[in-house]
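Hi all, posting the design record for the shared folder.

TITLE: backbone redesign
STEP: 1 of 1
STRUCTURE INPUT:
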């Protein structure tokens, strides 16, 4: 059965998803909608109330519908930090804090690795028929399969591995594009010479010339260079 917890006389919150299911006035008037056909049984989210859509809304991302937060089991903090006196003023509060557990970090190791230097660049997505998109994030992180060609990048790319406290710097010349690839879980299992769990331990980042292939006439020369350096980080 779903677990309920009454935070106060005004609120009713489910530990499944940290979802507020009831919010009443002092007169007992219900302010929130809950569908008469709502399913109160995990893992189905309850239809109505105040759900937590994180870290994406709908399918505007690579995760499940509305992200993972609304399908997690939340816990109560027996010793929450006190509210500031100026914050109360007769109002009711529910503080929800999302913290990763050890199991979460095993499931989503992408949160520990990020690539900087690809911001605002156009890229060709090999998972979507090589269609052209524009990178929206301030850094590239990993939560699903990635197979992209970033176009016209700078000559320096940084890969930050926060878990291992190390940074890789890629410096390149004559290679305007950058290939980024990780097969993630599903594809890893379909590659004969690739371990099922090895996607957690690797990341392919390489300089390339893809959008405008290098063509040489007789007697012409072309030079490409890629330098990889390692820097311990805190």
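Okay, here is what came back for every position:
SEQUENCE:
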């Amino acid at each position: 059965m779903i677990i309920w917890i009454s935070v106060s006389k005004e609120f009713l919150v489910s530990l499944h998803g940290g979802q507020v299911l009831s919010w009443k006035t002092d007169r007992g008037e219900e302010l929130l909608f809950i569908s008469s056909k709502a399913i109160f049984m995990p893992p189905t989210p309850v239809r109505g109330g105040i759900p937590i859509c994180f870290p994406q809304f709908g399918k505007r991302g690579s995760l499940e519908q509305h992200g993972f937060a609304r399908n997690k089991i939340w816990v109560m903090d027996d010793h929450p930090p006190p509210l500031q006196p100026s914050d109360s003023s007769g109002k009711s509060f529910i503080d929800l804090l999302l913290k990763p557990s050890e199991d979460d970090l095993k499931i989503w190791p992408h949160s520990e690795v990020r690539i900087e230097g690809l911001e605002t660049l156009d890229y060709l997505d090999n998972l979507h028929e090589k269609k052209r998109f524009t990178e929206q994030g301030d850094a590239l992180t990993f939560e699903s399969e990635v197979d992209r060609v970033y176009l016209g990048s700078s000559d320096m790319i940084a890969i930050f591995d926060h878990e291992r406290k190390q940074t890789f710097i890629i410096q390149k010349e004559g290679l305007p594009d950058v290939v980024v690839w990780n097969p993630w879980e599903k594809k890893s299992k379909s590659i004969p010479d690739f371990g099922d769990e090895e996607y957690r331990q690797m990341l392919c980042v390489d300089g390339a010339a893809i959008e405008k292939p290098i063509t040489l006439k007789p007697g012409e020369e072309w030079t490409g260079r890629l330098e990889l350096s390692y820097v311990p980080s805190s």
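COMMENT: Residues 1-99 form a domain with the Beta-galactosidase; Chain A, domain 5 fold (CATH 2.70.98.10).
Let me know if anyone wants the other runs.
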